[in-house]
Amino acid sequence: MEPINARSIINDAAGAAATAEASPPVLERRRRLSPAALAVTNQKVRAAYSPIVIAGFVRLADFGLIALVGIALYLGYVARLDGFRWDYIAAILGMTTTAVVCFQAADIYQVQVFRGTLRQMTRMISAWSFVFLLFIGASFFAKLGGEISRFWLSSFFLVGLAALIAERLILRGMVRRWAREGRLDRRTIIVGSDENGEKLIEALKQDADSDLDILGVFDDRNDARALDTCGGSPKLGKIDDIVEFARRTRVDLVLFALPISAETRILQMLKKLWVLPVDIRLSAHTNKLRFRPRAYSYLGTVPTLDVFEAPITDWDQVMKRLFDHVVGALILVLAAPLMALVAIAIKLDSPGPVLFRQKRFGFNNERVDVFKFRSLYHDQADPLAAKMVTRNDPRVTRVGRFIRKTSLDELPQLFNVVFKSNLSLVGPRPHAVQGKLQSRLFDEAVDGYFARHRVKPGITGWAQINGWRGEVDSEEKIQKRVEFDLYYIENWSVLFDLYILLKTPLALIKGENAY
Fold first, then answer.
1. Within this chain, do residues 369 and 326 fall inside the same structural domain, yes or no?
2. Residue 454 φ then ψ, to 5°
3. Which pLDDT does position 275 carry in this prediction?
């Protein structure tokens, strides 16, 4: 038997990749789209940036920049002459906090403002001047004017203002570049290609600062009420085409132009569309029934009613990504010795690569390659997982039985989390694209199955720690998985992720349904 070393394990990993690439292609059931819709999906689209997160980082940058300028000037001039005093540092931090609050009150933390120059600069200079006038007034009434260096104060005002102007000019260039790349647009589709749809599109286009990019309209009707071009936007297809369309290109918002009175039609459409990770709103611009202003959210001046919101967005997405990469990297380092032992055991037990890649469903039904330790005999590998592993399955090796029972075969998915970012530590488990219950694919067996793909899949999840893991041999098992996955999506928090992660080892010890 050949010796086991790190180089042979790396070669085995490469062999696994080659095996996966040589495997038969995944048979996909894809709906045929219209030429107009295909023209949109074929356009190159970059990932979107959240305006809320951008504004948050600008606030942090402002705070850090102002504090840095104030402290640097103090240490470079005042502290050298009079010695170090903490009251100056406290004053600087207080002025910095006040400045950020005043900038917020001046309404300059908006992406639309970041794009301009005159409005942004005048508001910022006014707010910055107000902060110093406020500080001078406070120090006068507190009889501290003689203790504050006038040279430092005037330098802080001028250098701080110059630094803020330079920062805003750099930010303006970045935001304009992102706008050209489409990263700040909300890619929107309209449901309803009729007179109401035309009025809605015209109202949306009247807002010069709108970030909406209207891709087109969808409508099921084939009579004269359904226009081929609605408000200058092409009709892209029927309602059933929206799900496929949104999986081929980035869609951020689905906006219904139908009146509230069309309740039955709207409910039928929502039943099809709620599985998508997008915001869904109902336009209220033509409705005679009016609610309180707080009941609406607005797109420019157009009132809308929120129906569904995309889960885990903005700062939640940032927090989850940080959690995945920081905690995932730590777990990977701690698990490295154990993973090496498992790799050696697999190599000694049967010929073939240590790792293999399997096609799984990812976010929004994206196909992702998931890394796993090989637990089947190499000549009986099943990269598409077309046949579920069952109790006493003859394809499973001796080591494979142990690592599947303890879920050690899942440890290489940490590479997906830390390096490829197509998995999370916690989330709905990524099912195989050909996963079946008897002769039916999972999405055919469970209504709303694809709603679990509105978030990134995970190594462990709420369903797994509640006992719903392993073999799927009954309709109840797949329904329960989906039920628990949807509960997780609706109730996500960082603490919930941490709780699931800490409970996972206890669930693995039980080893229920894992073969």
1. yes
2. -75, -10
3. 92
